[in-house]
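Fold it.
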Amino acid sequence: MKKLQYSGWLLVLVLMVFSCKKPDFEAEQQAMAAGTISDYLKNNFDFSLFAAAVNKAGLADSLDKAGAAYTVLAPTNAAFNKDGVLTAADFDKWPADSLRYFVRTHILPVRLFYSDIPLSSDNRYDNLNGARLYISRSSAYNAALAVNGVIVQSQPSLSTSVAATYGATQLNGVVYPLGNTLKVLPQTVQEFLSSRPAFSHLVAGFKKFGYWDKLGTDGPFTVYAPMDSTFDRWGITLDSISRMDANKYDPVVFGGYFLQPNHLFVLDILQLPPPSGINFLAFSLADAKYKLVMGQQPFGLGVGVVTAASALTSTLVPVTPFWNQPYGNQGTPFLGETTQGLGLNLLKGTYINYTCSNGVVHMLGDILVLPGKVIK
């Protein structure tokens, strides 16, 4: 009888231990995984375009090996649609080397679970091209996980006790869905700008005020790049830039378009708390008399240039258009976005950044500095 009672109590204790043990959801997912990453992409309609790109790039067999270990950052079909890719046939227009580089950009040669990623910004991982990606994990509910400033989409959890989780575990790794493709280029920010004719005004300004050579060095840099058409709207032409007297203007007139040493993605602002009572973050520019400021979510999503002295107060003195707005300090919006009080997490999806070998380039919807406001 005593032996029976002892056995009964032992069973109760064992059940209590297992009932109190925290479930390992990732282990559960891996145990339930029945296919490879290649299978998952081919059988999921939302990834049909990426699956086609993987196949055309000759990487489908690699992602089909059950004993391998990969992390795939898979753009959804909607992400490709933003880039003008609507059908698998569109990949036939891509050079083979470019397509292979693009696909390899989105693959890490390691199995990376969500819980493996430190709770910080810009955790660095090399992709199959050997290029560095920046993965940020935060407590911000609206941007809990991001890669190079692109939000990773969450998915329903296997557990009823968890509202959402990140990553679909397969036999040979993990797949994370992206709402935008990653733009990671094997060139410097200087090479990026010079290879695109639409930035000729910005390039001319950088050269005129002595910043151009610097942008080809190690950095890191964060460049905010308006296209030529935005300068033209303000009457700033290639001819007028060539005729500018560099001694007449503070160098911020074009030195306000980049930060150094910074490698800043828009969503990083969600993870960098501003000083108490301040709704923006200020960053040092090459011209010490001025600061570049970014609106802090939920007060705005733009950037602006203000006097350094005013950045220490709650009343900013801008030298840029579109800074003081009715619903906060939006600043100059990113290309395709609006100035009407949207938070960082509400970007419409047209915002794009390009990660280069020595920094990141953001497309802007307008200029940052009005020359008439920075005359010495």
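Residues 2-20 form the longest helix (19 residues).
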